[in-house]
Amino acid sequence: MSQSFTVVIPARYASSRLPGKPLRELAGRPMLQHVFEAAQQCGAAQVIIATDDERIQQAASVFGADVCMTSPDHASGTDRLAEVVDQRGLDEASIVVNLQGDEPLMPPALLKQVADNLAVHADASIATLATPMVAAGEFFDPNVVKVVTDRNGFALYFSRAPIPWDRDLLGNDVKALPIGIVPLRHIGIYAYRAGYLRRYADMRSCPLEQAEQLEQLRALWYGERIHVDEAVQRPGPGVDTEDDLLIAEQLLQARQ
Fold it and tell me: What's 236's DSSP letter?
């Protein structure tokens, strides 16, 4: 099932590890331009860059992007999306895909997949994606977010801890993947219903979210449903550091 959807790219200039990250040059163009051009290939009805910084607005205008100026006081990209929903007057059922401005290697197919996934699950407020894990190293890595779902693909929990925990196998410091269950690595791409984004603005942070530092746990805490689909392909790495920037440039040049 295909349904019209909007892609919003929240982009902040400030970054503690990579200042001015969205405008850093990558293969001869600002990183944000690569993200925007990839989003244009996914079949979205519109692609909007949401920012609070005039430098980003000016740069995005040069490559022809639709820019929505938002408040500098937002605590997260999701809050910024909620303002875009209100500014643009999107109706409650509209589907909005959140694409981070530091994901120049995100395949356009995944943007469409996550939007279509939400469209076919009417009882979900959010859809997201995951990939099977094949290495024990990533299963035990706290920087890798894991997700456990029910039999219908609805999220039960997200964690930085290795879940599901195979009690009999993983005692005595054994480092291995669970037996009989394929653990899932969460991919941080989301499709939201506009109505949920409006509700989100009134949801206070919850203890689970604060402990794990995972915003999606706020949705589960308040009883919202999140559907998880297996990604049709693996995304490229995001960009958080100078080393990440070099890797992304090499991968983009290899594609070209």
Answer: P
